[in-house]
Amino acid sequence: MRFGILYHHQLPRPWEEDSEERLYNESLEQIELADKLGFDYAWATEHHFLEEYSHSSAPEVFLAAAAARTRQIRLAHGIVSLPTAVNHPVRVAERLATLDLISGGRVDFGTGAGSSQLELGAFGVDRDTKKEQWQESLEIITRLLTETPFTGYEGQWASVPPRNLLPKPKQKPHPPLWMACSARTTIETAARGGMGALSFSFVSPEEAKDWVDTYYDIIASEECVPAGKTVNPNFSVVFPFMCHPDEETALDRGLDGAHFFSYSLMHYYITGQHRPGVTDVWQDFQDNRASVGLTREPVAVADGEEPSAEAKAMLEQITSLRRGIGTPEQIRDTLRRYEQAGVDQVIFSVQIGKNQHEHIMESLELFAREVMPEFVERREARESAKEERLAVPVKEALGRVAENTADVSDYVISPELGA
User: Fold this and answer.
1) Which of 3, 77, 122, 204 fits a 20 to 30 Å CA distance from 87?
2) Which residues, listed in sequence order, are joined to residue 81 by a DSSP beta bridge?
3) For residue 203, what are the contacts with CB-CB under 8 A and spacing of at least 6?
4) Which residues contact 399 (CB under 8 A, 6 or more apart)?
5) What pLDDT is stored for residue 9 in this prediction?
6) What is the mean pLDDT of residues 10-24?
7) Average pLDDT of the residues of the chain
8) Residue 129 burial by CB count (10 A; 0-12/13-18/19+): exposed, middle or buried?
9) Other CB atoms closer than 10 Å to residue 228's CB: what's the count?
């Protein structure tokens, strides 16, 4: 099993003049430490206009800064929003290739279509076509990264004439592809495209096993037709994190952050009425958290009363927020269950809510010292067995990738007329 850390760059109000600057510098210090401790991945999200929930609008810049301060840890987009109005595919490809070169080939490329209306509406993206836009852009990007020259693409949302992308990435044929997943349907889509599954739902180990089995069944079947030029068979899960020798201290330090993450997520994606520059999400959280069960002790169901399906779902979601918060022994036991379920990577959301920088640093050190070694010891044998098991299915999947036979040998660009 591999371990990653994820950055949304949450910044609850009230804000000070240097709050964002301090937030970014502390995040870079955490990634620098994680690199030295042996963590495998540093993930950065991309969001726009989601005050307090995510001040992470330019992850390519942040990851470039992380590249300059690290040597081993992989630098991963989780994710780049691919609707053309948000990120033109040519610019995405150029930034990816550049980051891959300056990092020494350490980039992973997570993709997604975006979801919140506050973001998509600002860029004029039609929610009904966002998935088609994602698919179109992904094809253009992977071809730009691998074709010399790129032979052109005429699409509904993006059209790019024949050109030769510069620079090309260090990793050949291109950085590993991942897809943001929040339900079984998107898990299946990732598997059909031969992409790693970034499961952003806080699933239990039991539910994770069901999803992992489905994912790898498709990877090994004729349904798998890679979206790029490689297959990246990996399944990850994400949950909040805080580690301390004393459970109550871990909860004191990390549970509010986990609860705010859940509350602010619901605010922007499900329940909230947001006034840009005005709404105070942190204060709303303080005022309303008890009504949605985000308390130290979740509201219990009365004796003899059968909880509704909605209540069960809410209780499970609240319980899931605690899985990565606790003592080394508690977190180790949780990770063993995910390992047995077949999960390849656990990604910890470390910088959420008002989690303190020094507590995050202490947690990373304690985890690396007390928990990580056991899983690293089993990693090589486990990954070798997976590679052997999937060798034939991956080869067959790559054989299903259509070869580009377009001929642009006569294509010439006139300085006067252009093309």
Assistant:
1) 3
2) 112
3) 211, 237, 320
4) none
5) 98
6) 98
7) 95
8) middle
9) 25
CATH topology for 2-279+323-398 is TIM Barrel (3.20.20)
Helix (H, G, I), strand (E, B) or coil at 41: strand
Q: Which residues lie across from 314 on neighbouring strands?
A: none
Q: What pLDDT, on a 0 to 100 scale, did the predictor assign at position 310?
A: 56
Nearest to 251 by CA among 187, 146, 326, 321: 326
Integer Rg of the chain from CA: 22
Helices (H), 38-181: 59-69, 89-102, 117-122, 130-146
Cα separation, 256 vs 286, in Å, equals 10
Q: Which two tokens stand for residue 259?
A: 């609860």
Instruction: Evaluate if pTM is beyond 0.90.
Output: yes
12, 280 in Cβ contact below 8 A? Answer: no
Lowest mean pLDDT among 42-46, 266-270, 313-317, 384-388: 313-317
Token digits of residue 119: 């973001």
Ordered by start, the domain boundaries in the chain are 2-279+323-398
Task: Report the length, in residues, of the chain.
Answer: 419
Residue type, 116: S
The model's pLDDT over 186-195, given as tens digits with 9 standing for 90+, comes to 999 999 999 9
